[in-house]
């Protein structure tokens, strides 16, 4: 992929192949944000992002219950088919408040649609991460080898606090949990690093990280470079700050390559371009 990027003049940035593991497709009625495939790819090109892993946007409307989740998942699968050079892997969605009715959709996501796992943002779906419905959904997901569960956390939240993710990780050690935007502030960072040290099946993305006091360096030092994945949270920006945050971090060039692309390739089974 050839990109026109605002960072082309900075060799620290331009020389790294970048796979974004935190990209949302769709319309969020809650945040009044829209991320069409055209908009996602435009921002990829603008920021020099080579490939992306996509999932439905949190806050999509679902008055029809599971049928609306199915439509979101169909949209992810269609985007992967239509833009295979840019959008290389996808995560589906099911809503825990739909209860047992959601479980068949887990199977369809992983078999018929061939996606890599599921995305959860419990501040939007209304039930806590450690609710019994979540355990039932992840139990179904755990039937599939190499399944990934992208789980958003927020330190201030009563629905998606880091410790609740720890309970899921304990219960399902074969699932890789991708903790989305775990370093939003210094308290969130401290909770996330503690979580990571106790749960080896959780990996962490860099989306929406706080930009001072060395969050990337701390994560690499305490968790290892193999467990941190670069991400941007496309489409919620025009120019992402998460690229220079990693490119300018005081870590080795080999570690930067792991964060920007190699870890994503390993976890999502992405062939090198």
From TrEMBL:
<dbReference type="InterPro" id="IPR032466">
    <property type="entry name" value="Metal_Hydrolase"/>
</dbReference>
<keyword id="KW-0456">Lyase</keyword>
<feature type="domain" description="Amidohydrolase-related">
    <location>
        <begin position="70"/>
        <end position="269"/>
    </location>
</feature>
<protein>
    <submittedName>
        <fullName>Amidohydrolase family protein</fullName>
    </submittedName>
</protein>
<dbReference type="InterPro" id="IPR032465">
    <property type="entry name" value="ACMSD"/>
</dbReference>
<dbReference type="InterPro" id="IPR006680">
    <property type="entry name" value="Amidohydro-rel"/>
</dbReference>
<dbReference type="Pfam" id="PF04909">
    <property type="entry name" value="Amidohydro_2"/>
</dbReference>
């Amino acid at each position: 992929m050839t990109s026109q990027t605002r960072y082309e003049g900075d060799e620290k940035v331009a020389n790294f192949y970048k796979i974004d593991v935190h990209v949302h497709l769709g319309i969020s009625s809650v945040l009044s944000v829209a991320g069409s495939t055209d908009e996602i790819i435009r921002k990829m090109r603008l920021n020099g992002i080579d490939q992306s892993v996509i999932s439905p946007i949190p806050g999509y409307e679902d008055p029809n219950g599971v049928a609306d989740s199915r439509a979101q998942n169909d949209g992810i699968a269609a985007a992967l088919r239509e833009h295979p050079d840019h959008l290389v892997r996808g995560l589906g969605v099911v809503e825990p408040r739909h209860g047992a009715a959601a479980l068949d959709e887990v199977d369809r996501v992983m078999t018929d649609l061939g996606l890599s796992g599921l995305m959860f943002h419990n501040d939007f779906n209304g039930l806590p991460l450690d609710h019994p419905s979540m355990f039932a959904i992840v139990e179904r997901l755990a039937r599939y080898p190499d399944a990934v569960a992208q789980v958003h956390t927020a330190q201030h939240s009563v629905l998606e606090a880091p410790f609740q993710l720890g309970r899921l990780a304990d219960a399902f050690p074969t699932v890789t949990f991708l903790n989305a935007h775990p370093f939003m502030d210094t308290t969130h960072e401290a909770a996330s690093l503690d979580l990571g040290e106790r749960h080896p099946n959780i990996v962490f993305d860099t989306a929406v990280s706080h930009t001072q006091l060395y969050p990337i360096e701390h994560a690499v030092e305490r968790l290892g470079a193999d467990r941190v994945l670069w991400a941007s949270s496309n489409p919620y920006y025009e120019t992402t700050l998460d690229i220079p945050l990693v490119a300018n971090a005081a870590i080795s060039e080999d570690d930067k390559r792991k964060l920007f692309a190699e870890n994503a390739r390993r976890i999502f089974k992405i062939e090198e371009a």
